[in-house]
Design brief:
Elements: H1 5-13, H2 26-35, E1 38-40, H3 48-56, H4 67-71, E2 76-78, E3 86-90, E4 98-108, E5 111-117, E6 125-133, E7 142-147, E8 152-153, E9 158-165, H5 168-173, H6 177-180
Antiparallel strand pairs: 1-6, 2-9, 3-4, 3-9, 4-5, 5-6, 6-7, 7-8, 7-9
Amino acid sequence: MRGSIRERETKLSGLEDDHPLPRRKPEEARLTERLNPSVLSDGRRLQCVPFVREATGIDIHGNANRWWDLARGHYERSRRPEEGAILVMRGWKSDRHGHVAVVKEILDERTIVVDHANWLNDGKIYLNAPVRDESPKNDWSRVRVWYTPGEQWGHRVYAAKGFIYPTENTAENTLGPTFALSR
């Protein structure tokens, strides 16, 4: 037999590959190291809306695609992220669906960190997920969300409606147990 035992074991195990996996960009490796984005399941199949309501104490009900309009007149809304704010996004192809996430940290003027649920329609909780502003005017109207399983930026860019700021009283006094897991 040719080659060392280690070489034969490597070939048999399938670890040797003519097509190595693509290397992560240094920026992606740094984000993964610093933030440690993760996916949790607590046994419930959570949707994004109850997760955000539980995490922030905000009193908005209804589908995520309606939150931006439902917040009008009740909560301050803005195009600028703040810690504790709720990012409201459109669905991928239409306004029939949407998504909401809680801003956990602001890394720089173009990158925030969110906690959210059901991002991949799996009912799981996604913690410490980076979100990057991809809008040409830096107005957070177009965002790219971190793909945690692949430890890289997602391929799609989503339209964002903006950020809802829960009232100080609500945000300070009602952080739910789910959000507390990520602190």
